[in-house]
Amino acid sequence: MNKVILMGRLTRDPEVRYTQTNNTLVASFSLAVNRRFVRPGEERQADFFNIVAWAKLGEFCSKYFKKGQQVGIIGRLQTRTWDDDQGVKHYITEVVAEEAYFADSKREGDANSGTFENTFGSTMPGNMGNDFEMSSSDDLPF
Description:
Blueprint: E1 4-10, E2 15-18, E3 25-34, E4 46-54, H1 55-64, E5 70-83, E6 89-102, E7 119-120
Parallel strand pairs: 4-6
Antiparallel strand pairs: 1-3, 1-5, 2-3, 3-4, 5-6, 6-7
């Protein structure tokens, strides 16, 4: 299984380009994700991930995501290689976004800010739909 779930802040505004073959929109940006633990006496460290969003999701990200915003990304890892003009082989690992969420708290009067309720992707994390019913502890077999 190849699934990545990240929450962090954009280090720059998404950059948009279009593929040469079929003119598909591709948005790319970088996400700074804080590490969970801090060693005593040290500053909190972060990891930086390159994110790529295609087509409609890329359009959404380029339109609503801005540098400094906290967002959630669900996607998959992808590794690519290519040779440059001098014949040197390059490698890159990036996250291909499949879902994107606002993760900042909503600020008053800011239409571009939101919460996890404002999503682009499939279902909400933890949303089981209307058919899911919580059972009481009396119904549990243990």
